[in-house]
């Protein structure tokens, strides 16, 4: 893992997240643990409305956490109920926190390669619907990262388990002086919760 990213990870206090959030995260821990116990691949699809902010943060931090705790066969994806674009501030914040990010395609729906380690496969970040051919079609956990998608998608085809883990949208800070701080805070909150999840997995 890149040293700057390790510095961010070491600053996280995932054991200190509050009790209510730990309860919210329990179903995801159980899903991953069962897959590990059965020596099966672990496919996680993080879903939000626009696949532009929270779902990408959760996808990236979950993949990094799985690597940090050496949990094998973890594949993290993201999707939305509609396609928009990965919001540029998300890539900027992840870069500031130690990920290596470079553009693959500069279009209205840009495509990024996001790496947490020099030798890791990049996470490919772009906006897509949750049922995109890029994502798994069966045997995955659908993790609903926003209440709008959670309420609007009571059924996710192919999902083995549906788990609501919602986060406040950092979009509320767009075009305000607080934007940078809010995006940084949301990214670190999601990081702490994903690291908490994977810290509880027994191999």
Explain this structure to me?
The chain is 39% helix and 19% strand. By secondary structure, the protein is of the alpha/beta class. Helix 3 links the parallel strand 1 (42-48) and strand 2 (74-80). Helix 2 crosses helix 6 (179-199), helix 3 packs across helix 6 (179-199) and helix 4 packs across helix 6. The two termini are 21 Å apart.
Helix content: 25-40%
List the strand order in the largest sheet: 2-1-6-7
In terms of DSSP E residues, the strand content is 15-25%
Unreliable runs, pLDDT <50, ≥5 residues?
none
Shape: globular
Number of helices: 6
**Mean of pLDDT:** 94
Give the number of DSSP strands. Answer: 7
Structural class: alpha/beta
Keywords:
39% helix, single chain, globular, three-stranded antiparallel sheet, four-stranded parallel sheet, 19% strand, alpha/beta, 7 strands, 203 residues
Describe the structure concisely:
This protein is α/β, with parallel strands linked by helices. It is built from 6 helices and 7 strands, in the order ααβαβαββββαβα. 39% of the residues lie in helices and 19% in strands.
